[in-house]
UniProtKB/TrEMBL annotation:
PANTHER family: POLYNUCLEOTIDYL TRANSFERASE, RIBONUCLEASE H-LIKE SUPERFAMILY PROTEIN (PTHR33317). It is found in: Cytoplasm. Belongs to the YqgF HJR family. Keywords: Cytoplasm, Hydrolase, Nuclease, Ribosome biogenesis. It holds the Pfam family RuvX. Residues 17-119 form the YqgF/RNase H-like domain. InterPro entries: RNaseH-like_sf (IPR012337), YqgF (IPR005227), YqgF/RNaseH-like_dom (IPR006641), YqgF/RNaseH-like_dom_sf (IPR037027). SUPFAM superfamilies: Ribonuclease H-like. It comes from the Bacteria. This is Putative pre-16S rRNA nuclease. Transmembrane segments: none annotated. Its EC number is 3.1.-.-.
Length: 160
């Protein structure tokens, strides 16, 4: 699978497509969707991970229902910029979505360093959520944080 640059996405998408942001973890996959103007990311849910084929089928269904033109996957890069085993796991997931599950839409990676901790700090400090409630929303909120970062980068590029 060839890496696609985030900044090449607008040329690959139709005007009615949306982006699906993913925060893939070992137990869940947080999801967020963009608006059609690629300005706002909204959390939409979490997939509790099971077998790959079942997870891929759920993702494919969501992509079809929401007219998704590309996936933006959070890439958990180490603080020093290197890629460790968690990055390899995300890259393998993306590769398997193409090779095994037959996904044909582009998949781009977005550096998600500190996304989950930033979301948790917000949920604790600003939203004053209980631990139980935070655990219910943190993955999809992290996906929205990741996708919003990518959308903001696209917007900055188009404003030049």
């Amino acid at each position: 699978m060839q890496d696609i640059d985030l900044y090449d996405l607008p040329e690959l998408l139709d005007s009615n497509h949306r982006l699906l942001g993913l925060d893939p973890g070992s137990k869940t996959i947080g999801m967020a969707v963009s608006d059609r103007d690629y300005k706002v990311a909204s959390p939409i849910g979490t997939i509790l991970r099971s077998k790959f084929k079942a997870d891929a089928a759920k993702l494919k269904e969501i992509c079809e229902e929401r007219n998704i033109g590309a996936l933006v996957m959070g890439l958990p890069v180490n603080m020093d910029g290197t890629e460790g085993p968690r990055c390899q796991s995300v890259r393998t997931l993306a590769e398997n979505l193409h090779k095994i599950a037959g996904f044909t839409i582009p998949i781009v990676f977005w550096d998600e360093r500190l996304s989950t901790s930033a979301v948790e700090r917000f949920l604790i400090g600003e939203a004053d959520m209980t631990r139980k409630r935070r655990s219910e929303v943190v993955d999809k909120a992290a996906a929205a944080y990741i996708l919003q970062g990518a959308l903001d980068a696209l917007q900055r590029r188009s404003d030049r």
